[in-house]
Amino acid sequence: MSALVSSWGFRGTIVAKENPTELVEILVDVLEDRLRKRLFQMESKPLGLATGRTMQPIYTSLVSRLKDWPKPKMDSLLEGWCSFNLDEYVGLSNESTDSFAAFMAQFLGTPLSLTPDKLRLPDGCAKDPQKEALLYAEQLKTLGGVGIQLLGLGVNGHVGFNEPPCGSDSSCRVVSLSAETRKQNAFAFRGDPHLVPRNAITLGMQEILDAEEIHLVVTGATKANTLYSLLNEPMSECLPASWIKQHNNICLWCDYSSLTKVVQQFSPLCL
Ligand code: GLP
Fold first, then answer.
1. Which of 170, 172, 212, 230 is the most exposed place for a label (fewest CB within 10 A)?
2. In this predicted structure, what is the pLDDT of residue 38?
3. pLDDT score recorded for residue 190
4. What is the pLDDT of residues 261-271, one digit of tens each?
5. pLDDT tens for residues 174-211?
């Protein structure tokens, strides 16, 4: 595996498992370990969290693990909890069931009894979304930037809502969502892409690349072409996720379905 990794210009670790559930469990082992360590660090940086179907089983498993922690440890973890989500739709308040704020409340906030001030997202209903983006970035910067960043992958290669084309120096801002992304996310809007908001506030590549460590999680055959391009093509604006290949502390977590095209192409080298 290491020979392939260097030939792709990817500096990180790749963890691949056939079964997505097994993949989630070993990723959650790592997250749990990091959260345990946070208890002993006075100045832990905020966690960077993501939304999407890939993240659901991760949060469900994490919640069930944390519920097994001894109460004093759990209480002190929750007391010091500080996370910043990547993005939010413009025009959706945290009361809208379609918002990312509602997603986070459902899968993490409510089960862990985290208050909204600990589980932060951009305010999709801010009067001036661009100002809100600047404020959100400023708040994150004041707290030292992201420690551990969880990322999912868009079918068009976006991370957060950094839609192509997107440079590595983009910062937190308001973006227009592509037709492809609105289609990908329609599942949360009764299957209708037209109901998916046209704009969003997203952390930029800059804030993502400033994270201490990045965990990119990719599952399912629908991501196979994108993952192949990510690993096999040079970094470029056309594939925003590719910028993370330059990060020096990155782990890619993928199931076999998402690796189908990579394996087809490289199987002679793997032997
Ligand atoms: C949304 C989020 C991204 C996420 C992507 C993947 O577009 N803004 O941060 O990576 O969904 O979604 P899924 O996991 O549902 O495939």
1. 212
2. 86
3. 93
4. 888 776 555 54
5. 999 999 999 999 999 999 999 999 999 999 999 999 99
Say if ligand 1 is within 6 A of residue 87 CB: yes
pTM for the model stands at 0.94
Q: How would you list the strands of the sheet with 83-85, edge to edge?
A: 13-17, 250-255, 213-218, 148-151, 47-49, 83-85, 119-120
Q: Are strands 148-151 and 87-89 parallel, antiparallel or unpaired?
A: unpaired
Residue with CA nearest ligand 1 atom 3: 160
Residue 59's φ and ψ, nearest 5 degrees, are: -70, -40
Tell whether ligand 1 has an atom less than 6 A from the beta carbon of residue 123: no
Q: Could you write out the DSSP letters of every residue in 54-117?
A: TTHHHHHHHHHHHTTS-HHHHHHHHHT--EEESEEETT--TTSTTSHHHHHIIIIIHHHT--TT
The number of the ligand 1 atom at minimal distance from the alpha carbon of 160 is 9
The answer to whether residue 221 scores a pLDDT higher than 80 is: yes
Length of the chain: 271
Gap from CA of 253 to ligand 1 centroid (Å)? 15
Q: Is 225 a catalytic residue?
A: no
Judge whether 158 counts as a catalytic residue.
yes
